[in-house]
């Protein structure tokens, strides 16, 4: 039987399969070789959609439930809970993950024209920060989900180490690379000795000088952007008649993907309705109520992400909130993004420094930084990281495919 290598990401996923002596990425949605990590349970038509189609069906207003960022639930007690699908049925979060993994495995089997029962799965350096037991549990939950779809032999590899293998495959000399994998949910760093001679070995433990990660990445920037722009127009940080800040929980929940649905619970909606007297500007309350009544939370979060990507490489954009209120438009530029996310940027750069420091290596000994993960498209962020290592060459990999390719390289060594 054949094997595959799965990059199950918070935001995007991909799967690599052997292709003769080489590797290829399997098409996972039409011709695309990466897809958003999302499943839409369409209760209108009793179907399931994956990836872009899932997001599309949700936006088109079909009845049902959109599940995204399922990876972030791993390691939390919530993972074994069930979530309502809206038609009276319910499903466990870990089963949603299994359904998604099954989609990836089937895509891999189709691409390889063979059944698959072995896999290398990527994992972040930490699923859960500062809690080794929860972290262990997260990996176990992911493994159980993978087994439930027929993968019998499973190996894990750290995502940034996989990216290092991808980088290494294009190098001709030895060096010390700091891999910066800045994704949706986590920013992971690994300091790895790479080189053509080292590539021949399967066991590379000694070449990994340090790895370190933090739970701060793309979705945290989205949150900051949403709070600083859109949600301010709905009363976030506004003061009540007595000069106190309006209770902010609803805003934080609206800005957090997996909590958005909690805001729509009838009890919360009526509580929010009763808060009207606290709003010095009633238009803020009107907009907030329109958002919860029309269930626009996910759409607002998507606007924040779009705005972030829109200015990622410098420039400006407009956030169009027509669905909340006619002609409500907010200008947004890179300077605002930098300011909204300064704390995140600082923490990510610090994690990179800590990684190198843990290894007992001087910043100057790092010969290259290899950037991968969607959030390395944020020019100010990769710039801040590069500035912390002035002697390192900045190398940009394929933002969304390096990890899957690197996991494939590892799988070939393990299974061949
Ligand atoms: N052009 C871009 N510029 C900036 N950010 C981007 C761009 N494209 C995608 N992103 C962001 O990249 C993130 C997703 O990156 P990626 O697909 O690498 O994450 P992931 O692998 O799913 O997550 P993780 O590795 O944390 O589990 C999202 O937050 C998305 O908004
Ligand atoms: Mg990733």
How would you portray this structure in words?
There is one protein chain. The protein is an alpha+beta fold and 416 residues long. Among the domains are: 2-151, Nucleotidyltransferase, domain 5, CATH 3.30.420.40; 219-340, no CATH class. Helix content is 38%, strand content 23%. It has helices at residues 51-59, 93-112, 132-148, 159-168, 218-228, 249-254, 266-274, 282-293, 297-311, 334-340, 342-358, 379-388, 402-415, and strands at residues 2-8, 12-19, 22-25, 35-36, 38-42, 47-50, 64-68, 82-84, 90-92, 116-123, 153-158, 175-182, 187-194, 208-214, 316-320, 329-333, 368-372, 393-396. The strands form 5 sheets. Strands 1, 2, 3, 4, 10 and 11 form a 6-stranded mixed β-sheet that branches. Strands 14-13-12-17-18 form a 5-stranded mixed β-sheet, sandwiched between helices. A 3-stranded antiparallel β-sheet has the order 6-5-7, with helices on both faces. Strand 2 (12-19) and strand 3 (22-25) form a beta hairpin. The longest helix is centred in the N-terminal third of the chain and has 20 residues, at 93-112. It starts with a strand and ends with a helix. The mean pLDDT is 95. It binds adenosine-5'-triphosphate and magnesium ion (MG).
SSE inventory with pairings:
Layout: E1 2-8, E2 12-19, E3 22-25, E4 35-36, E5 38-42, E6 47-50, H1 51-59, E7 64-68, E8 82-84, E9 90-92, H2 93-112, E10 116-123, H3 132-148, E11 153-158, H4 159-168, E12 175-182, E13 187-194, E14 208-214, H5 218-228, H6 249-254, H7 266-274, H8 282-293, H9 297-311, E15 316-320, E16 329-333, H10 334-340, H11 342-358, E17 368-372, H12 379-388, E18 393-396, H13 402-415
Parallel strand pairs: 1-10, 10-11, 12-17, 17-18
Antiparallel strand pairs: 1-2, 2-3, 2-4, 5-6, 5-7, 8-9, 12-13, 13-14, 15-16
Helix pairs in contact: 2-3, 4-13, 5-9, 11-12
